[in-house]
User: Fold these one by one.
Assistant:
Number 1:
Amino acid sequence: MAARNLGSVGRGGATAPSRDLDGGVDGGVDGGLDTPPSSAARPAPAVSQVSQVSRRSAPRPASAPRPASAPRPASAAAEAFLAATVGGEAAATPEASKRRRARFHSLEVAEVRPLTADAVEVTFAVPAELADEYAYQPGQYVALRAELEGHERRRSYSICRSPSRAADGSGTISVGIKRDLGGIFSSWANTELKAGDALDVMSPQGTFTSTLEALDGKHVVAIAAGSGITPLMALAQTVLARSETSEFELVYTNRSTLDVMFLEELAELKDRYPSRLALHHVLSREQRTAPLLSGRIDAEKLGTMLDVLIRPETVDEWFLCGPFELVQLARDTLAAKGVPAEHVRYELFTTDADRVEPRHGRPVEVRQGERTFAIEFTLDGQSSTVESPVSANESILNAALRVRPDVPFACAGGVCGTCRARVTEGDVAMTENYALEPEELERGYVLTCQSHPTSDRVSVDYDV
């Protein structure tokens, strides 16, 4: 096995010239980013602040039952499963694979493996009868649910390994969990969770996936900070395995060598694909030999990397994953270099400290004679209506949870997209959006955790 030093290793194993990018990791995903005030604006256009969405008496689309998958021979299961991922010849349709009704099932923990002093990889066993429901694309995530300290807590974690199935049709789901300072769920997972435990795991969700139909000759670049590496591990493994001519380049930023998650796995990938995988480790609190591999990031340093090391004109697809400041800085810099927005995929990682736990909806009292909004929602083919006082400024998700505790949600912060629904009647205002694509907004989809009624009656459909 090759030496595990953190050099900026280019294709062919040669040490690249000095370059730098950083997003140190304090607690969860990030530490010292030297970000100018101008980059503090929220990402656009996929992110919208107070988006107005209207649907006046629009007919509700029929909720057709999801067709059952035809049984496959066990010998063909693995091949067919991999073909439905990045660059597969028989790739699943984006709508079928990326957006489906989120459901929880209890899965057994197969392994808890330490990655660093503050991070673990948790692997769940997926029985054959649930394998289709847990089929996923590299880059997607699952939500985990547990009762901790008297409260139900849900946290979303990215899947960190490429899809695979055993001959008997069973599979596994692996996620990386970094302990956040003050984070109840992540601390419990790092210290208490063990093999043999059962945990509620939601079916895979998310759109942080490749849009490339074929990978031959493609150049994919990813920029990650801290635990933002987790979805990129699955993407890198799949991109490199699916084609003999694809190239993957990773800029991975941490505080120090001890904070690097999946250090051994990245080195093994480099050993396996020495000419097609380029790794650039950047440390913010540990001195590197190359000046640009040390210290804090700013627009000038990132621009230098793009001018000298990566060359954006050769890149077919970009993936950005980490804290808001890093993602925003990278998006701004790529835009300034002329990179089309549609070539850039990004996902925000946040810590789980000081999180609001929606559980069954915060209590809201409806007083007699008070003006209310009528919120109708459809879930699993059943429609329910709840009255929401105008004075409560209640989100659609909170109102729905008061009468249907099984309404899907995970982060409740506008990041994961689990609570997505389509407005079929009325007007709503959406405060934050870090999950929906522009085309989804145009079709009337909203994040119900961030959406508030602005008309007397609003109808949303979780089934479409």
Note: The chain is about 20% helix and 30% strand.
Number 2:
Amino acid sequence: MKRIATLTAVLVTVVFALFVLRETADVVALASALHPTFGRVVLWCLLSLYALCLGVPTALVLRLRTPLTAPASESAEEFDRYLRQLTRQLSRNPHLAGVPVTADRAGVERAVQVLHGRADACITREASLVFVSTAVSQSGRLDGLMVLVAQ
């Protein structure tokens, strides 16, 4: 199944690239018919746009940090290093502003409980909003739109 999905993704990407190439050639030919320099300018603008559309997501993905994974053993030095790194990440969380996060297991668990409580409050608030808006509207199509907007 994974191989079929990979082959399908490659095929769709190649077809899309061929489509973009053909359309770029047509637009550049149209611009060149007006003036040769204008055709070159359009070509470079389109190539810059394509590079930007590919480069920005690639750079953002490459800048992501590796996920923090807990070590198998809690008694090793690796677990202490894991707790320190997790504490550092939690202390930068804006939802934990004013909440002291210590580098021990209890401090990390308290911080996670605070985040869990804030997440539950947010979920409850949004669910109540969707419930009230769909109860008032009495229109199936409008209900679907309201749920979509709430997300």
Note: The CA atoms of residues 117 and 123 lie 10 Å apart.
Number 3:
Amino acid sequence: REKKKKLRNQIKIQIQMIGAKNEALSSNIIKGDDKQEQNQLSNIQLLNEIKVLKKEVSFLNNLNSRLGKQLKIQLSNNENINDMDFNYTRINELPYLEQLLMAYDEKIEIIELSLQNVYEDFREIQKKSEVIVEENNYLQDQLKKKCQEIQQLQIDGMPLQNMALNFQKLEREDLNERIILLTQEN
């Protein structure tokens, strides 16, 4: 019976709060009539909020009546049971909660460990991407230098023999760079 009273009191308090909100919103709408052109959008929002609150009030009233009926049925079925048979306060004692709290702690530790692993993986990927970007920038600079050298050779108009020697020189430098890069990778 005490539970029933508590539940009804909670529902009544919620209904009163919703009613107070409804009255406040209604008074805001009445005050807004003077500035109707400026507050038209806010009035529509307030009306929508009033509708939502009315739906919530009807839902809570319906819930109150259903729970009241269920409580009456349970009380009529359990008239012979002594209130001393049930000790609800023991449920909140530490021996009853200890296993539950330990399970929560284990789950939290597992989640924290997996989160640390994800952060470490992210840091490693970030470092690798920085190295790749630096290497890419270096290779782009080298490619630009080679292209400028080739363009300069074409502009200078060297004879074909000197041009062939210069291309061989450039190819040799390119091969040496590839050898250096391959040895670094290995």
Note: The radius of gyration is 40 Å.
